[in-house]
Design a protein that fits this description.
- This protein has 308 residues and is α/β, with parallel strands linked by helices.
- The chain folds into two domains: 219 residues, Rossmann fold; 63 residues, Alpha-Beta Plaits (2-Layer Sandwich).
- Helices cover 35% and strands 28% of the residues.
- It has eleven helices and 14 strands.
- It is elongated and about 75 Å long.
- The mean pLDDT is 89.
- The structure holds adenosine-5'-triphosphate.
- The site of adenosine-5'-triphosphate (ATP) has 13 residues, from helix 1.
- Adenosine-5'-triphosphate (ATP) binds next to helix 1.
Length: 308
């Protein structure tokens, strides 16, 4: 299968210290790949190099087989990029801005109106065509940012923390839009929020301290990181000692009077034992769920491995 994008042993040094070291990855299919890393991990550096706005110190970037360094204009035609700080012109209307972006992408003049119409419809901004960008909400500005990234119909879209700074409703809308645009192209999406990557992506690349610490499918990641705590909500909770008496339970933290996080030794049949104990001892269990926040602990563990 031909790769849409291939990074080969990318390293980058800004001044004296290395921001990323020996990053390699290949994407050959449509869908969303998540680049997950905490602040300063090296996500933006990787994305900026991938999109040809920063020249790497070492390594190569190929987009649809085209070497970014050797043929940047050709390679960039295949990429749409929404940087962390979207390059929007506040005093232009949506139409003026998208027309300008299509020109920058060297699209033939005659093809621009249809491309603008398609991008606006896909991003749900057609009704704001004549509105100044400064008068749009944060969520709609981000949609305009995504529209400029897809206007030239590239095979790869790179989105650097696209939901950062949006309110909860806007986040849901922008995530839905990203899912939609990934149906017929590859999308690389960076985030520092594990649950967001789990929700959206079929593949995950975790980056820490400038190095890839995990790269596989989302399913493999979820299997790899078995949770070690469950969250219980009870009407009549017992004392911590009663929970600790159950085989496999290592710790019980009361979050509220009725909500407790129960840590266990990894034996996944713990829920069954907790439910049985609840019935026998009358704890009136209302809810029990695998504690997703525990995955963040695994993220920390994987990140620490890269520094050893
Ligand atoms: N222009 C620059 N000059 C010097 N160092 C830089 C520059 N840009 C980034 N760095 C450093 O490179 C490292 C990686 O930064 P980068 O912005 O790629 O991380 P990130 O994962 O995108 O983080 P964030 O989410 O905070 O943007 C950090 O240590 C950062 O301080």
């Amino acid at each position: 299968m031909n790769s849409i994008v291939k990074l080969e042993h990318l390293s980058h040094r800004y001044t004296s210290s290395w921001a990323i070291r020996d990053i390699s990855m290949e994407i050959s299919q449509t869908g969303i790949v998540g680049l997950l890393g905490s602040n300063g991990a090296g996500k933006s550096t990787t994305m900026n190099i991938l999109c040809g706005v920063l020249n790497q110190t070492e390594g190569n970037v190929f987009v649809n087989g085209i070497n970014m360094r050797e043929q940047p204009e050709l390679a960039k035609q295949e990429i749409g990029f929404l940087p962390q700080h979207p390059p929007l012109y506040m005093d232009l209307t949506v139409d003026e801005y998208l027309g300008y972006c299509a020109g920058l992408r060297m699209m033939p003049k005659a093809a621009i109106p249809a491309a603008m119409k398609e991008a606006k419809e896909r991003c749900g901004i057609a009704h704001y065509s004549k509105r100044l960008i400064r008068n749009l909400s944060g969520g709609y500005r981000q949609r305009v940012g995504i529209a400029q990234a897809i206007i030239h119909r590239p095979s790869l879209i790179v989105l650097d923390e696209p939901t950062n700074g949006l309110d909860p409703n806007q986040i849901i809308e922008v995530r839905a839009l990203i899912k939609e645009i990934a149906t017929d192209r590859a999308v690389i999406f960076s985030s520092h929020i594990l649950s967001e990557v789990q929700l959206l992506c079929k593949e995950i690349k975790m980056i820490d301290n400038g190095k890839i610490v995990f790269a596989d499918t989302m399913d493999a990641f979820n299997n790899y990181v078995e949770p070690h705590s469950v969250l219980m909500h009870m009407e009549n909770p017992p004392a911590a000692a009663a929970l600790l008496a159950i085989e496999g339970v290592t710790k019980a933290d009361f979050l509220t009077e009725r909500q407790v996080r129960v840590f266990f030794n990894g034996d996944q049949s713990i829920s069954e034992r907790l439910i049985t104990a609840s019935v026998q001892q009358g704890w009136r269990l209302r809810e029990i769920s695998i504690d997703k926040t525990a995955l963040d602990e695994v993220f920390k563990q994987l990140s620490n491995q890269s520094t050893q």
